[in-house]
Amino acid sequence: MGLIAVWSVLGLFVLSSASWWVAANEMGDAAYYIKRQALWLLASWGLFLLALRTSMRRWLALGAQGLLLGTILVAATLVVGSTVNGASRWLVIGPIQIQPTELVKPFLVLQGAVLFSHWQRISLDQKFLWLSVFGGLVLLVLKQPNLSTAALMGLLLWLMGLAAALPRLMLLGAAASGVLLGGTSIMINTYQRLRVISFLDPWKDAQGNGYQLVQSLLAIGSGGALGSGFGLSTQKLEYLPIQTTDFIFAVFAEEFGFLGSLMLLSFLVIFAFVGLKVALGCRSPQHRLVAIGCSTLLVGQSILNIAVASGAMPTTGLPLPMVSYGGNSLLSSLLLAGLLVRCALESQGLESARPKRRPALSPR
User: How much is the pTM?
Assistant: First the structure.
């Protein structure tokens, strides 16, 4: 819980530095983004505490309903969703914007744990049903199009299946299908293909398709060993695009330098170690898979975001958990963190795995 508290609070400070310039120029209020993020953080911590107070038995029972509802909402984005930069990922309900691909992630972990932990005892039709739901969700996310999130979901399920000791032939087939599907998506969608090409040599088109990566690399390189200091990034002054979400790590690296970046990576390693320790300490296979899934999403998505900003992989639209601006991502991340801590509590016997029943009233 201490690691999660540090992660979310420091993430708010990093966002305050990355967002004030664009907020002042576009919204007329330098604190616009940070005030909204602070409200979302309070709501997300409420969800975190709810996760702690609710037994894993109940959360696992909600996995199927949450996953089906999330899949329906993802499908709805293709029909009535709000399109931004050519991608339909949002549902607008009054003043609230919902991004179903973020909110469905915890329920994907829960239902994946339910399915894979009882794989040998589940009937063939049930296996086919839920594998079809998983595959349909990934295809819907690809259709938005959102290759990065679809790949993350596929990788999450594959790693959970590996941890559950699913048949190797099945895992190899799933991996091959995922690579084929991703390659096909890149060939079909022009913008994805251009991102891969610009990733290989961003300086060739530094003012076009390679602009984002070039500016990100300039920001990271400008940080040097110790950084320019908190709040003193120059690349965020309208040079670096989407600096509050996808490329927020570049602002962090410029202000805190190589040493700060190394400390951030060390923090992720520590968090991954603690998550793995929680998973190994779980007696229930379902709890173990939930802990592995939550740790994979939180740490894995962070590493992918950092890899994009530093030019280690093609540009994607994955936020940095608990740091990037966005209420949906914050809700999802802290719910995942709450489920991870709940697994730890139940594995240590500090909380009962069974929901508490109210005592019956004695007759007068």
Answer: 0.92
